[in-house]
Amino acid sequence: xxxxxxxxxxxxxxxxxxxxxxxxxxxxxxxxxxxxxxxxxxxxxxxxxxxxxxxxxxxxxxxxxxxxxxxxxxxxxxxxxxxxxxxxxxxxxxxxxxxxxxxxxxxxxxxxxxxxxxxxxxxxxxxxxxxxxxxxxxxxxxxxxxxxxxxxxxxxxxxxxxxxxxxxxxxxxxxxxxxxxxxxxxxxxxxxxxxxxxxxxxxxxxxxxxxxxxxxxxxxxxxxxxxxxxxxxxxxxxxxxxxxxxxxxxxxxxxxxxxxxxxxxxxx
Amino acid sequence: xxxxxxxxxxxxxxxxxxxxxxxxxxxxxxxxxxxxxxxxxxxxxxxxxxxxxxxxxxxxxxxxxxxxxxxxxxxxxxxxxxxxxxxxxxxxxxxxxxxxxxxxxxxxxxxxxxxxxxxxxxxxxxxxxxxxxxxxxxxxxxxxxxxxxxxxxxxxxxxxxxxxxxxxxxxxxxxxxxxxxxxxxxxxxxxxxxxxxxxxxxxxxxxxxx
Lengths: 268, 210
Known about the structure:
In chain A, about 40% of the residues lie in helices and about 20% in strands. Chain A is α+β, with helices and mostly antiparallel strands. Chain A has three domains: about 5-60, no CATH class; about 70-125, no CATH class; about 130-265, no CATH class. Chain A starts with a helix and ends in an 11-residue tail after the last strand. Chain B folds into two domains: about 1-20 and about 135-210, Winged helix-like DNA-binding domain superfamily/Winged helix DNA-binding domain (Arc Repressor Mutant, subunit A, Orthogonal Bundle), CATH 1.10.10; about 20-135, RNA polymerase sigma factor, region 2, helix turn helix motif (Rna Polymerase Sigma Factor, Chain: A), CATH 1.10.1740.10.
């Protein structure tokens, strides 16, 4: 006979594998898993996947061939990420071998200090090649262990058709917005501006850069360009501002992520 | 029970292609992938591309979204290949778990529920070839057999939730049953499926070890 807490835990585990689970429910789930260590996260994922495959097998209308263009795209993405990973591994191995020799330590430290200065300049002028943004986004998603991901929620009826998400890593100080269905703006009159909510470090939302939208029928990916170092991003917002953006916004929020507005955005 | 016994003998005859306990790790694409063998990723895409694309198309009606999601799924499988343990799950189960989890997360980020509309006219007879990989999976057969023994209402409820992606509250409205009943029935059926699956796996291993 299950206790009521165990019943709740089983319900939440089933929800986790079959339905949406809110942040609050997830916190409760994690608390209960600690209380009942015989259960684990995603307890029902395996059986739900097998049941899914079983229904899929029976449904002749659902079997499709992977388009050859998509196959090429997947293989190319893998090659690029693989070569990037290899490059990073080589750099790491090289750095380790240098630090193994104490005589180089001071010189390397000095170079690092100079490097940080340069990277801060680069950071302020951060601008990625748009062709590699989808790849960079996937790479960030695959390699960050502190990644936060939220869908965008529209706050104005004009933006009800806007869909997409945001991914962000505090450690990497990097993130991307993916968006579609956003109305095209006239860059000579206004620009969309990204805001990062970091209530522990800043009272005001931090400027995350401005961007233009010139297509509505396909996804666009925009890198987030924080003007200040972010400690712990708790939320994100987008407003429509004058060209170049503003330091403190007085405009209405267009989109927020997550849906529930963090209290620190009340000053927006 | 009789049908299960018949199926068990089928599993034995197909033990090299299906049973998780008889699959050699050296034969696994995921093992090759984890060892960074040349061509392993291509093999993975060849083997599971159609299956993952077919599943993605059910979850995502937008072509671009589906393409992005499938790319993410393959990268996720690649990154997770080192965690694959054939003693815990078959390769297809491992792959489908990652695919399903990624796709569910993807869908939840975009929108709650979607119309299941075809993206393009890529359905043809050749597409049925994608079934073969599932046909060979003993794990899927065990579950199919178990689901077939469920009451019609339970089968429909599982399909709406697990396959068609409806939320519990949407199912409650569609089937005109209380939300609490939806949750209880889903939980009961998943636990029952898992019990049957574990029991059958145990039986297959015992017979194979004789």
